Amino acid sequence: MTKFYEVRKRDGAARLGFLSLHEEKKQTPLLFHIESLSSDKEVIKVIHAEDPNFNDLFREDLWDVPRGAVLLPEVHPLFTKVQEAIPSLSVDCYVLSFASALLNSPRAFVRRIIDARNAIPSDVALWVPSIATEENAALLFYMGVDVIDDTNAVIQGYQGIYQVEEGEVSLRELEELPCNCSVCSSLTVEELREQNSKERALLIAKHNTLLLEKEVKKVKAHIRAGSLREYVELKVRSSPFLTAVLRIMDLDEEEYFEKRTPVARNHGMMANTMESLKRIEVKRFANRVRERYEPPMSKILLLLPCSARKPYSISPSHLKFTEAIERYRGRIHEIILTSPLGVVPRELELTYPAAFYDIPVTGY
């Protein structure tokens, strides 16, 4: 149960919600700014298990501001204490500690975030601090993270690292600024280099933060549209690490995403990458055909190719197939072979996602 956080919409594990801060509702996915946190403009009272006030989190009568608890790694001596306390804590948010260690291994990245999301109540926000970039933010939200911050963006700004949509680049490697934010549109790359070190760092940090803010807005739009998975497949292409994270999730975390992915959507499913073949909707359809579908008692099995137009039966090719076998249709079992779904019985061609997907077609 939460008091200051409310989930309003979901797209898989990603959520749109509202976190009340200073009597103002902030929509999640939410980006916290270092300056706001340090100045208490965005108050969320986070209490560590070592804090003498940790027991206050068990008391609802002291719950007068948004508050959170810290999730510890398994090697921490207080890990068990926190895990056992979670069902009884009255908090709006959990903060994943030592998050920077997740960047050392794709498997650790998946394991800690999914374990955290499974351990805490579904209506509570999850904050993963210090690691968000424009490149990985969409994947974090796709996994079920609700709150990030601009710590990484600011630190990299002071290191002279200029973040772009496909990753990052050193300022000295740029010939021009490939961005139209308020920072980059107001000066040239030469003028940026000529600034004193402090001013240059502040400007790059501001650019990095503005880029991250833009990415958060994009993710919100995709959650509303129900297309975050397609966007994540696009974003991870620029990073072997993030591609590995997505593949590990698809391979090892099927149960986690199965519980959170709707059985039908009101828009088409775009299957444009190899990772599309492993998404929950595809595996779910194949599993249900194999486990639940009962084929008709026909002696003749007719294998047909798929078509660009959906449902298949209204495509020009399938209209010709139907015309050719019209006299015998009651005695023929029709199966459509298609990528990415595999086998689609004619009787199921109108179900999701059989009638609602699209793939690249080359004509061969």
What structural class should be given to the helix and strand makeup?
alpha/beta
With helices defined by DSSP (H or I, 4 residues minimum), what is the helix count?
12
Architecture of the largest domain in CATH?
A: Alpha-Beta Barrel
Q: What CATH first level of the largest domain would be assigned?
A: Alpha Beta
What this model shows, in words?
By secondary structure, the protein is α/β, with parallel strands linked by helices. The chain has two domains: 5-153 and 209-255, TIM Barrel; 265-358, Uracil-DNA glycosylase-like (Rossmann fold, 3-Layer(aba) Sandwich), CATH 3.40.50.10630. Helix content is 35%, strand content 19%. It has helices at residues 34-38, 79-85, 106-119, 137-143, 151-158, 189-194, 197-225, 228-235, 240-252, 254-260, 280-292, 316-324; strands spanning 5-11, 14-21, 24-28, 30-32, 45-47, 67-71, 93-96, 125-127, 147-149, 161-164, 167-170, 269-270, 300-305, 332-338, 342-345, 357-358. The strands form six sheets. The protein has a four-stranded parallel sheet with strand order 5-6-7-8, with helices on one face. The protein has a three-stranded antiparallel sheet with strand order 1-2-3. A three-stranded mixed sheet has the order 13-14-15, with no helix packed on it. Helix 3 packs across helix 9 (240-252) and helix 5 runs antiparallel to helix 7 (197-225). It is globular. The mean pLDDT is 93.
